[in-house]
Amino acid sequence: MGRPFQGRLILLTLIALAVSVQAESKRIISIIPSTTEMLFAMGAGGRVIAVGTYDTFPPEAQKLPKVGALIDPNVEQILQMRPDLVVVYGTQTELKRRLDRANIPYYSYQHKGLADIFSTMRALAARVGAGPAGEALASRLERELAGIRAKVANRPRPKTLLVFGRESGSLRNINASGGTGFLHDMLDAAGGTDVLGDIPRQSVDMSTEMVFARAPEVIIELRYTAEGINKADLETWSRLPGVPAVRNHRVVLLTGDEFVVPGPRVGAATRKMATALHPEAFK
């Protein structure tokens, strides 16, 4: 083996080590609830120095400085904290431009379907130097979801309306899951048939006439917190007695912010949906 070859080998080794060190991000800012949860779940939470306004889980994240969110990132504060990686939404063009000017690396995030959650876990883990932990986390969640699918595989799939927003005390401005996105995919994994599955959108604005037309057999309403929920509000659906779900008393309320955060708790959220649709399978 000649000296020129040895020299090239040493150079390539040094380059590989440099890349590895660069990937070991030590000062991470994540302004996205789902990626913040991912970082903590894969054991990189100790390297997170700031989070977004709406990052509330795990509890350790609440102790960190807040630097804004999707529409109001505190760019000056972010720059002053001298992070070596910022996790940003893919749509935050101006923030990414400012980070580029300051030579601060960033990871650009976009959530879509259920599978994208796992690919994001793996990619983010590799980016921060926690590849094996990210792979283990994603694989565990994939197995958890596969187990849920197996439990409901041979059961009837009720036509389900998945509602995640409406005016309090009324049935106006109903927002429901359409045929794309992680909520739709979770409903499918939980053993339900999305009554809006033919509409290729993550969110569908519905009228009561549309609810009648779609005739769901089950209505699952998601609330991300129990605060403000009262009996009168929950009984609002009784105004639609002609809807099969209402007539057969299959309007279900599920609470928890895991339904709005497409991250490590997606398995637990899907199990809640599956239990609501197929309670006999999870006794």
What is the share of helical residues?
A: 40-55%
- Please give the oligomerization state of what you see: single chain
Overall SS class: alpha/beta
Q: Mean pLDDT across all residues, rounded?
A: 91
CA-atom Rg in angstroms? 22 Å
Task: Please report which band the strand proportion falls in: under 5%, 5-15%, 15-25%, 25-35%, 35-45% or over 45%.
Answer: 15-25%
| Count of alpha and pi helical runs | 11
Main β sheet profile: 6 strands, mixed
Shape: globular
Give the uncertain stretches in residue-range form.
9-22
Distance between the first and last residues' Cα: 67 Å
Order of helices and strands: HEHEHEHEHHEEHEEHEHHEH
Number of strands: 10
What can you tell me about this protein's structure?
The structure is a single chain. This protein has 283 residues and is an alpha/beta fold. It contains 11 helices and 10 strands. The protein has helices at 3-23, 33-41, 75-80, 93-101, 114-128, 131-152, 182-189, 208-214, 231-234, 244-247, 266-277, and strands at 28-30, 48-51, 85-89, 106-109, 159-165, 174-177, 193-194, 203-206, 218-223, 251-255. The strands form 2 sheets. Strands 5, 6, 7, 8, 9 and 10 form a 6-stranded mixed beta sheet that branches. Strands 2-1-3-4 form a 4-stranded parallel beta sheet, with helices on both faces. Helix 5 (114-128) packs antiparallel against helix 6 (131-152), helix 5 (114-128) crosses helix 7 (182-189) and helix 6 (131-152) packs parallel to helix 11 (266-277). Residues 9-22 have low confidence and may be disordered.
